């Protein structure tokens, strides 16, 4: 496998045969080829190619065939795809065929200094989704996104002045807001997929409990559960939130409280033993979680529901 790491946007442009960026911290590229399709902007290679960039990227392509891989997960390509990557993410592709037109934005975190986007971009979880969780655009959404890309491109190639960066960031802010809206639409439209993921999430927790791993290994992290599902932890959390109205952490705590209610009614198990069996290092923390969810303490629950 061939691997490329890009520390600069200039190096990225040079590798893919793009013009030198007009700003070392920000670039936008629009490529149109005379041929109907092109193989991932590079010559075809027999082996997979992986890319790591130390800056943010946004790419809009109509992907026709091939493979995109992030970690152990494979992305099933389809048309109208918007891909987001955060710094130091690695994408692997093989025999990727995309349509003759594509847009690409790259920007360093430093470009956002002094703007509201510096903090706001951290709220957009989709920059940390796996590639197979890319945004699939409807035709109308794709046209809207293209219009924003064109507005950014127009300002980017305009004579730079004191307003240029502010205008570009304003357009970029709009693009990211629309992406957030379209992702939420995609979550709603994938209701069956969301239900299936949440069912698998619950099954993993149940298996973990049945195998006594809570007591042996502690409460599983969100990252661990996402890895078992083969998705990014941010995507898993957003899917569960869309499906249940609660975060993944809330669902883990609800699962623990549900199991605790059964254990607390066992006459041979103390509250501390119940806490340790559920993976809590400190019984006081278990009692706090339990009371927050049930409105009463474990002791009060036991006294209220135990059979005399």
Automatic annotation (TrEMBL):
UniProt source species: Euzebyella marina
Keywords attached to this entry: DNA-binding, Transcription, Transcription regulation
GO molecular function term, any single one: DNA-binding transcription factor activity
Official protein name in the record: AraC family transcriptional regulator
Stretches assigned to the HTH araC/xylS-type domain: 199-304
PROSITE patterns noted in UniProt: HTH_ARAC_FAMILY_2
């Amino acid at each position: 496998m061939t691997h490329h790491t890009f520390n600069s946007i200039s190096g990225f442009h040079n590798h893919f045969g793009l013009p030198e960026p007009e700003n070392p911290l920000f670039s936008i590229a629009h490529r149109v080829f005379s041929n109907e399709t092109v193989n991932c902007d590079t010559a075809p290679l027999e082996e997979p190619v992986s890319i790591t960039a130390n800056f943010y990227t946004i790419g809009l392509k109509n992907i026709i065939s091939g493979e995109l891989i992030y970690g152990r997960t494979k992305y099933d390509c389809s048309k109208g795809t918007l891909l987001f990557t955060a710094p130091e993410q690695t994408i692997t592709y093989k025999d990727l065929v995309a349509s003759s037109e594509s847009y690409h934005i790259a920007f360093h975190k430093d470009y956002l200094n002094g703007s509201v986007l510096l903090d706001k971009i951290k709220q957009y979880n989709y920059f940390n989704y796996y590639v197979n969780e890319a945004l699939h655009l409807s035709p109308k959404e794709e046209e809207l996104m293209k219009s924003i890309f064109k507005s950014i491109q127009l300002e980017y190639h305009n004579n730079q002045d004191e307003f240029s960066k502010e205008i570009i960031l304003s357009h970029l802010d709009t693009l990211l807001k629309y992406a957030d809206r379209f992702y939420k639409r995609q979550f709603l439209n994938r209701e069956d997929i969301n239900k299936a993921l949440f069912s698998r999430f619950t099954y993993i927790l149940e298996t973990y409990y049945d195998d006594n791993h809570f007591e042996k290994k502690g409460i599983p992290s969100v990252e661990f559960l996402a890895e078992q599902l083969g998705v990014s932890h941010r995507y898993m959390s957003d899917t569960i939130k869309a499906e249940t109205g609660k975060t993944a952490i809330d669902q883990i705590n609800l699962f623990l409280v549900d199991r605790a209610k059964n254990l607390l009614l066992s006459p041979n198990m103390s509250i501390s033993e119940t806490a340790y069996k559920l993976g809590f290092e400190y019984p006081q923390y278990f009692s706090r979680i339990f009371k927050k969810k049930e409105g009463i303490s474990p002791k009060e629950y036991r006294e209220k529901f135990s059979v005399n």
